UniProtKB/TrEMBL annotation:
Cellular compartments per GO CC: eukaryotic translation initiation factor 3 complex
Protein name: eIF3h C-terminal domain-containing protein
The species this protein was found in: Aegilops tauschii subsp. strangulata
Lineage: Eukaryota, Viridiplantae, Streptophyta, Embryophyta, Tracheophyta
Keyword annotations from UniProtKB, A to Z: Cytoplasm, Initiation factor, Protein biosynthesis
Residues in eIF3h C-terminal domain copies: 39-164
Pfam families membership: eIF3h_C
Family annotation (Gene3D superfamilies): Cytidine Deaminase, domain 2 (3.40.140.10)
UniProt GO MF annotations: translation initiation factor activity
Length: 164
């Protein structure tokens, strides 16, 4: 586990410690948590492990700028991010729901309008506008089809009556 500030977790101490862990425990990962990003409304958790190419280079005491350039490794190639999924059990979810204060629907939650979430909100609104345009277009197509169907049925009934 490593706590970091604003995503600055790549330190020599972390690499040395994690190198020892990864050599002794085959399937270990480092969980990195950023509380500053979490305070902005983003759960900043990462699961990382050292890449094999970096571990080989580090084991051979070849951790110099020249060796890194020779192996074409940059700071991005030191760690490999492993996707993680955080979920609650049904019992915990039910408990959390009970702990929530019951608030009337008319009460506004202005915390959702903070500027830290503005890019996400803007993207979601653009997506919603596109979906609404699509829905409007499909409604118009359906109404046009339904009107034509009514006309054709009335023409068919008129033709059948004329034929009789």
């Amino acid at each position: 586990y490593q706590s970091c500030l604003l995503g600055s977790f790549q330190t020599v101490e972390l690499i040395e410690t994690f190198m020892n862990y990864q050599e002794n425990i085959r399937r270990c990962v480092c969980i990195v948590y950023d509380p500053s990003r979490s305070s902005q409304g983003v759960l900043a958790l990462k699961a990382l492990k050292l890449t094999d190419s970096f571990m080989d280079l580090y084991r051979n005491n070849g951790l110099t700028g020249e060796k890194l350039r020779e192996k074409k490794l940059s700071w991005v190639d030191i760690f490999e991010e492993i996707p993680i999924k955080v979920s609650n059990s049904a019992l915990v979810s039910a408990f959390m729901k009970e702990l929530e204060a019951e608030s009337p629907v008319s009460q506004c939650d202005f915390d959702r309008l903070k500027l830290s979430t503005a890019p996400f909100m803007e993207r979601n609104l653009e997506f919603m506008i596109g979906c609404m345009d699509g829905l409007s277009s499909e409604q118009n197509k359906f109404q046009y089809y339904y009107r034509n169907l009514g006309r054709q049925q009335s023409q068919q009934q008129a033709w059948l009556q004329k034929r009789r």
